[in-house]
Every structure is written in C-alpha cells, then in structure tokens.
Amino acid sequence: MDREEIRTLRIMEEIERDNTISQRTLSQKIDISVGLVNRFIKRLVEKGYFKATTIPSHRVKYMLTPKGIAEKTRLTYEYLRYSLRFYRELKDSLQEVLSEIRVDGIDNILLYGTGEIAELAVLFSRVNEIEIVGIVDDRAGGLCLEMKISPLSEIRDFSFDAILILHTEEVKERISSLSELGVEKSKIYTLKRKR
C-alpha cells in the first residue's frame, strides 16, 4: 500500500465521518496541503466514489457512493494487511537488534523514538535483560509505559551504553543529530527493516 492510497483512505474516512468537512480542515487532519486535498477530492469525485453538491454558505456536501463504499472497503482491507505485515517486520527487527545489543554485552540503552514501537522495545528489552534508562524524541512530553519522554537536547542527562533509534524514516539524519550531540557512532543502533 502506497502513501497515496493511505491518504485516499484517510480522506474517505474523514468525509464519511463529516460529509460537510472543509478542505482546510481535511488538510489539517491529514497533514497535507489544501491544494493536494483538492486534487484528491476531484479525483475521487471523477472516479465516482463521491458525489459533491453545493450547499448554502459556499460549502460542499459529499456523499459516498456504492462504488466509493466498495473502494473504501478494499483500501481498509489493504491497509490492515499492510499494517500487520509492517508490525511483524518491525517486531522481528526489534527483537533482532535487541538480541544483537545483548550479545555485544550492553546492559542499558536509551531509546530514541516513541509510540507503539517504543512500548514494544521496553517490553522486549525486559526479555533480553536490557535496562531502558530513558526515552528521548524530537516530540518530547508525555509518557511511554510510565517513562517520561525527554527532548533529544537532554541526551547528555542520561548515562547509557548505547542508543537505539526506533524511527524508520530519516535515520541518517537522526544519526547525524546524535553525533552532533556527542554520541559515538559505535553506540548507535538502528532497526534493520526488510524492504
């Protein structure tokens, strides 16, 4: 499943939830430009997935067609398959890298990343007898399994043998950021995903 199909599914879900949603609100919810939302909607209407009618106050009302319902069902199914495959690969990669960390004689690590993958890392680290000393991320704040998520800039406040980057995108840039903060490259581990 590609990014365009995921965006299409998100737009269809949002419009189904609120059939008078504005393109500006859609762009904010999906985190894409208003122009891109406009192109997606035009394409969905052209394909017959939605009918668009103008209502007072310069608003548009969208109605999902039977053809649109079938496409949304197909995309939902594909998204679930994609998500399960992605989760399995991520889980396998996480278990593999934590085993490697343990074999390298490392007892404690700092996690760089949040979300479900961080929760899995905390749980799998217990199986591998690796202590998680903290979690840092570009988007700090909040908790992950009762552990505070600190800003990356506070990395020097932690004592760790290695750091595990949990992000799967912009990995090289994140390694560079860590190097700039004084982390030796030999202490940096990343997830190895099969592509």
Task: Write a brief structural summary.
The chain is built from six helices and eight strands.
Describe the structure in your own words.
The protein has helices at 3-17, 23-30, 34-46, 66-103, 116-127, 171-180, and strands spanning 50-55, 59-64, 108-112, 131-137, 143-144, 147-151, 162-165, 188-190. The chain has 195 residues and is of the alpha/beta class. The chain folds into two domains: 3-64, Winged helix-like DNA-binding domain superfamily/Winged helix DNA-binding domain (Arc Repressor Mutant, subunit A); 88-190, NAD(P)-binding Rossmann-like Domain (Rossmann fold). The protein has a six-stranded mixed sheet with strand order 5-6-4-3-7-8, with helices on both faces. Helix 1 crosses helix 4, helix 2 crosses helix 3 and helix 4 runs parallel beside helix 5 (116-127). The longest helix is centred in the middle third of the chain and has 38 residues, at 66-103. The chain is elongated. InterPro entries: WH-like_DNA-bd_sf, WH_DNA-bd_sf. This is Winged helix-turn-helix transcriptional regulator. It comes from Candidatus Zymogenus saltonus.
